[in-house]
Fold this protein.
Amino acid sequence: MKKNFVWYGVFFVIAIIYPHFVNPSWVDIGTTFALYSVVALSQDIVLGKAGMFDMGHATFFGIGAYTAAILNTTYNIPIMYTIPIAIALSALFGIIISWPIIHLRGDYLLVATIGFNIIFYQALQNNVFGLTGGPNGIFGIGTPVIFGINIASQKAIYYFAWFILLITMLIIYNIDKSKLGRAFHYLRESEVAAESFGVNKRFYKVLAFALGAGLASLAGVIFAVQYAAVSPETFNFTQSVLFFTIVIVGGPSSIPGILLGTFVMFVVPQFFREFATARYFVFGIAMILTMILRPQGIWPVRFGKLPKYIFKES
Amino acid sequence: MEIFLQQIVNGLAIGSIYALVAIGYTMVYGVMKLINFAHGDLVALAAYVGLTVLMQAFGMHITNLWAIILMFVITALFISLFGVVLERLAYRPLRKAPRLSAVVSALGASLAIENGIMLIWGPNIKVFPSNVFPNMRWHISGVVINSTQIAILLLSVILMLALYIFINKTKIGTAIRATAIDQDAAKLMGINVNGIIIAIFALGSFLGSIGGLFIGIYYRELYFQMGWIYGLNAFIAAIIGGIGNIPGAMLGGMLLGIFNVLIAGYVSNGWSEALTFVLLIIILIIKPTGILGERVAEKV
Amino acid sequence: MLLQLNNVLKTFGGIVAINNLSFEIKENQILGLIGPNGAGKTTVFNCITGIYKPDKGSVYFNGKDITGLKPHIISKLGIARTFQNIRLFPSMSVAENIMAGRHAKCRQTWFDSLIRTPKYFRDEKENWLKVKYFIGLLNLSEYTSAIVGSLPYGIQRKIEIARALASEPKLLILDEPAAGLNNKETQELVDLIYQIKDMGITILLIEHDMDMMMSLAEYIIVMNFGEKIAEGIPKDIQSNPQVIEAYLGSE
């Protein structure tokens, strides 16, 4: 346990000093890395912990971003107030979307989530209710103001994003070592067994979606702030595939795995921007090889950490 | 009314293409419970390869008919082989791995093939020559039917019938059906499961390649990302008809083709994909096993 | 009378799995269910625990009609079970697997879990200590943090029973608990079942090991082709001609 905390400590110290040593475009990448990690961790609740095939998670990321964008630009609501609204709205959508499809067989659930993503994307493109701005999206999104301080500079937004990541990691950590996290795991491994000792299938599965949706949407708000704009492309099916792949390649239900996954799937390609054409070809091959060599993910989750008092002589 | 009938005719042509592609998905899923995300990109690859062969043949002054035959034969052989190699490299090593790992491998293969197409043929749209199939038009009570549509529909039906006979009346076909129901039992009965899987990939890729060529001949515009859209639609068709069920894939393909065309005609194009998925989700909620019922190995 | 089945009928697409089955279990009784393979025994268990809903008839538990209720609700009413093919969580430790049995007894809400309220800490401690108690009860202390997937079959069987006991049930249903066990392990199992009876728990079990069944069960129900063909104390069952005929050829 203690060893892990040291690693996380090192990780965050590096993150803190990072923006002072790199040029602005790489600070941006650092911010997006943090936000994508939050989305991936939120997807992991549904996919990695609860074992439900969700390939439409960019939808919730987008709901957060667009909620902030619309409320802020059309209704002049300050960003900080859009956060709880975005989270609640996204969680609500998570419940509504998952409710009718929650007991579908794995691959059918997969295709249904893809479906909702595409419906969402086309709704954005078609400027539904005249609110979403069509293919060009929405511009001029403001910045959050906390206790009078305007989080407007690139570095400030960076730190804010990493703060959100820290909170997310704490939440995920809390879930793991609790009745909630255990229930998800039981459902993932054997629904029949889980029900036999009292796990309410529907409740926990829908809850997983709600939590995953809420967290993703939080990242969405900050993402909208980072680019001061939102457009439909960022929340289409290809993005969902990215988040899905991050979870499986990194290691389902593993926090370090998913952070690594985001690094490999998002940051590493940035190094090869010059090889723009061959980049994704190599990437596809790399995905195949990674799965063949490490089917459990780069950093698989490990169980067996028990509280000390279970060993002490009573 | 004529417009409606016209849509039906158009829909049937497109539907045949979906059906050919859907069969590839449904066979693989029925036996391996794997959504072969790379299948759609194989279909796209077929169109590009076909175009290249065709242009080469024309360049060598080969007569029209032989050029077309050459295009079909070479493309079909190449893509069938490609499908078998794909299975061997990207899926077989993951037979014992968690299911989602195979899915990611499939996604990787899809990405690689799609971008491979872009690297070889460039990012710009490529166009098939017009009238690859001799083009005649008939006007029947206000509906325009062109010979290309008839050719596609006819050839597809012949292929699907041949497949149906193969699956139901030959030894290999029966072995395929047995493997789809219970792989382990099939092994115990002496069926070479690896061989069956190779056969399925070869067959599915073969049909998909014909579908790809039809896309080139009918729609004429090729772009390297097109595999995704056809693939996704074909998979939806397979689910609608009943996954693992070959006649189901055929029926689903036809229905989806008609549905697509009607939506694009009566509603706007911008909602076409979304509404297709609404249809799918409704079917999944009401009758998840599809119209003709699914045929998958269930591990209870 | 703790559990009662009344005229239960269960079909699967035209095939009758259980036909007009009625029997009852008295409190703190050890009741055995025997019959050739395919007689419908596991189906009976599944109808009791809510995995299947009977087409006709009813199941009463503790005076309450539980017919067709969802499995997790029936579990919370006090019925626990083990499975014919062990359904443990192989990637988790023994303690974590037994903790699964405590799920219904854990009182933290998902919100408590999320933000670690004092209730969460109290709840965790209370339940992990209960897990420790059950580990000790089944002599599994040396395996507490071992990963289940790596343990021998006999130990895994014990863990599954420990998990069922951890939910503090009134009725424990065991589906072929001795399958795959050697003689020594089977004897340990018999002792364990007596121990469970002493705890006041009622036991319903399916078993093919006839020696074990005849010495352990206080009352036996015999099934064949989905129907009850005989019931009675072991002595009577052993000499029942219909039962002998159903088992012709098997020991």
